Request: fold
Amino acid sequence: MRQMIKAPEWESEKAITMPKRDFMRLFTDNERRAIIGAAMQNVDIADWKDGLLLADDIRLDHPDLLAGMAAIVAAGFLTEARKNAILAGEAPT
Reply:
């Protein structure tokens, strides 16, 4: 008898999932550069960034992604408004 594996409770049917490249394009060049620089000096941001690189696709509702985005806001590399726009899948203007 096959056992069904239950999806994590954080998953939703409406969550946006995208390739890593598309996710990174949601950031401006300056935002990406600031995050790369921060990752060189902050192990938590480096760990989050490495997790993105290892992922097959990016789910915009994943708890690890949300925690990393909150850390980037707390470190001053993104505003709350930019974080929300990125998590809504909105490209920079």
Remarks:
- Residues 65 and 74 are 14 Å apart (CA to CA).
- The radius of gyration is 14 Å.
- The beta strands are 17-19, 57-59.
